[in-house]
Amino acid sequence: MWSPEVQGEQAPLYIDRRFVVFRDVPGFYSYAIFEHTKDMPAFHLNTTRIAFMLNKEKFHYMVITDDRQRFMPSAEDRLPGRGEPLAYPEAVLLVDPIEPEFKGEVDDKYQYSLENKDNQVHGWISFDPPVGFWQITPSNEFRTGGPFKQDLTSHVNPTTLAIFLTSHYAGTELLVKFETGEEWKKVLGPVFTYFNSISDKDMALSLWDDAKRQMNEEVQSWPYSFPTSEEFPNCDQRGVVRGRLLVQDRYLSKENLPGKAASVGLAAPGDAGSWQRENKGYQFWTMTDEDGCFVIKNIRAGSYNLYGVVPGFIGDYKYEVVITLTEGCDIGLGEIVYEPPRDGPTLWEIGIPDRSAAEFYIPDPNPKYVNKLYLNQDKFRQYGLWERYAELYPENDLVYTVGVSDYQKDWFFAQVNREIGDKAYQSTTWQIKFKIDNVDQGGSYTLRVALAASNHAELQVRINDPTADPPLLSTGEIGGDNAIARHAIHGIYWLFTVTIPGSLLLGGENTIFLTQAKTANAFQGIMYDYIRLEGPSCQNGNL
């Protein structure tokens, strides 16, 4: 409970925590009902999670996914004398670990993050006795930030987390901010903490397969029938939305294209893309099939917008009509059409529009700062990759020539500052060189710049004059997802449109200058998702 007497000492919330145990079920369920009432003051809710700290003498093997599992160092290895702190407290170089096999590795809990859509089961295995401890999250409806929001899982200590609300990989925009007297209530969970065991120690790793089996059972059982709170609706009290998503891009096809493998979801009404910053309501997401068809099930009653993200196309889809669901309803939307931003034919493009920088050049880590788990996968999760840029480009910045350069080899995955002294940094300006033989001097060209992440950065765009003032685009300081420091390949998505008058272009070679202008620290920077230059519109607006 909360009262004014504990203001400043206790979060102004009523918190109803519940634990559910069934006979012969090896584990327990946990959920909580958070409530902010009209008599409570304003405050910001940063983090809500359940944290388990396991027996450090028993649990040494951590499992996040099929490919991301390993024996882990101990918490003692991070202490002074055994560990050497790096650029921020979470990252520690193991210089004298208890187990010599970990010497020279970096330990950082952010190297083990997952996207919400993939964060369904993770945990630890003990080999003596052979026992597994697993955190299973059967639904993402109560998490914030949508399916691509990333968060922590398990890490050294040994620790396992069930994450409900955090600003990780998003920044302060995902803090839950309450005004004085704002009324709000939300059910977080239930999640399932599962235990398993096996008699043969040599088969201990098979406990992971059993944990995945149990996870699938929990997913199929959602929404659970056992919660007694009136705030948790059962299956009969929820609704369904179905439809087919098509994409209309007349510069690619005369016919509408199926929005295949798209992420489609319901979230609080807002602008297109607002779901990735939404933090107070519930969200319900699914993926379309090869024909663009989708069915979203088990939706709580309420009012929502339908949003969509289609791989291969920039921008965000939003169904403009607010959808109101009632208990037991089944709403068919029929065919809905997303028309991604476009003003003219593609003259050239860099990257893949998939909200990630994974296709770009990711350098090998400094041999001093290696996590062995990522030597042959997810190279972007290695520590200190931002430092490699200045080593590759010690004096002059990146220059990319359209038609000659290869973005997989020649486009660094993050535009970061260059360190020029002790905690002193210099802004960087990248160049894109391209040719236009016949410039339409009276027309307008359009540059689309999609960012996969931004951390307190300012992007400035100029054409043919690196000192032009004002630039064609200055974003001002944007973002705070810290994706560069926290070993991610994306954070919050941004899309900018820059109009380039034909009069500023030259017949022949032209240069676009991309400047990241903020220089306070090493982690200020951006990751590009995709860049495209469009020519003036064709007369008939088609191919």
UniProtKB/TrEMBL annotation:
Give the matching InterPro entries. Answer: Carb-bd-like_fold, Gal_mutarotase_sf_dom, Galactose-bd-like_sf, GH-type_carb-bd, Polysacch_Lyase_4, RG-lyase_II, RG-lyase_III, Rhamnogal_lyase
Q: What is its EC number?
A: 4.2.2.23
Q: Which domain of life is it from?
A: Eukaryota
Subcellular location per UniProt equals: Secreted
One GO term of the cellular component aspect? extracellular region
Print the keywords alphabetically.
Answer: Lyase, Secreted, Signal
Does Signal appear among the keywords? yes
Similarity-based family: Belongs to the polysaccharide lyase 4 family.
| Protein name, as recorded | rhamnogalacturonan endolyase
